[in-house]
């Protein structure tokens, strides 16, 4: 097992299967260890998404931006319902094709696929979302404290995005850094950008290895059921 190539390592990791909820730290490194962090990206169906509407602006991702929902989430068991609520509001009231963001991270670090990354996101503020990979951290970080698990989940999905879209962590910004008219992503989460902590977490994953595997269908439903049951 000394010479596992990267593909084998990823297979090995997904074969472990899970690790499933959020991001798990690996035990002490050995030559056959899975990547330092591995997690799953839950498909849209798992949170009960409606289909996206036709249309939207195709774009090429060249940077990444972090957001909060500005609505406190004191009970993480509500995450799937909360994502459906955002999507309804964005489609029905804002007239957007889909939920505004490309991925979400809950308070426990679980990662959810949202809008197709090939379609530019939407914003209620005034910046151009073209090129941005938009990650939503659920919660209100002007009122709540971001958890370590949520920061690690955000780091994992951003690390994945750098590989997926061929971009660097130097492109990471918060919403308020691209437009001053918003407090998003909230003071407590913003502090992790200002200090460089979030970027450091992403860079650490890129240096040590990670896996983020899509999970759909019955397996994803089981994970969401466990989240809703508070397990
Ligand atoms: Zn925002």
Task: Please give a structural write-up.
The protein is of the alpha/beta class and 231 residues long. The longest helix has 18 residues, at 148-165. The chain starts with 5 loop residues before the first helix and ends with a helix. It has one domain: Peptidoglycan recognition protein-like (Lysozyme-like, 3-Layer(aba) Sandwich). The protein has helices at 6-16, 79-93, 148-165, 175-178, 187-194, 197-208, 217-228, and strands at 24-25, 37-42, 63-68, 103-105, 111-113, 132-137, 172-174, 210-215.
Q: What percentage of residues falls in helices of 4 or more residues?
A: 25-40%
Ligands bound to this protein structure: zinc ion
Specify the overall morphology: globular
CATH superfamily: Peptidoglycan recognition protein-like
Q: N- to C-terminal separation?
A: 34 Å
Count of spatially separate domains: 1
Pattern of helices and strands? HEEEHEEEHEHHHEH
Counted beta strands: 8
What's the CATH architecture name?
A: 3-Layer(aba) Sandwich
The CATH class is identified as: Alpha Beta
Summed over residues and divided by their number, the pLDDT gives a mean of: 88
The gyration radius over C-alpha positions equals 17 Å
CATH topology: Lysozyme-like
Low-pLDDT residue spans? 1-22, 25-30
Based on secondary structure, the structural category is alpha/beta
Number of helices: 7
Strand content: 15-25%
Q: Give a quick account of the main beta sheet: strands, pairing sense, barrel closure.
A: 8 strands, mixed
């Amino acid at each position: 097992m000394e010479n596992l190539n990267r593909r084998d390592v990823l297979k090995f990791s997904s074969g472990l299967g899970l690790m499933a909820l959020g991001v798990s730290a690996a035990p002490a490194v050995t030559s056959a260890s899975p990547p330092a962090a591995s997690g799953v990206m839950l498909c849209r169906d798992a949170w009960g998404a409606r289909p996206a509407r036709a249309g939207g602006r195709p774009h090429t991702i060249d940077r990444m931006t972090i957001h909060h929902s500005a609505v406190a989430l004191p009970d993480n068991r509500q995450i799937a319902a909360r994502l459906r609520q955002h999507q309804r509001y964005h489609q029905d009231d804002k007239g957007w094709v889909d939920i505004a963001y490309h991925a979400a991270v809950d308070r426990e670090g679980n990662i959810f696929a949202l809008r197709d990354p090939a379609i530019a996101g939407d914003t209620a503020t005034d910046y151009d979302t073209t090129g941005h990979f938009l990650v939503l951290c659920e919660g209100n970080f002007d009122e709540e404290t971001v958890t370590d698990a949520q920061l690690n989940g955000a780091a994992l999905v951003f690390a994945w995005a750098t590989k997926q879209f061929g971009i660097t962590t130097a492109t990471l910004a918060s919403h308020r850094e691209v437009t001053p008219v918003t407090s998003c992503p909230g003071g407590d989460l913003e502090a992790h950008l200002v200090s460089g902590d979030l970027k450091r977490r992403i860079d650490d994953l890129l240096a040590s290895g990670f896996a983020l595997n899509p999970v759909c269908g019955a397996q994803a439903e089981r994970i969401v059921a466990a989240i809703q049951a508070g397990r």
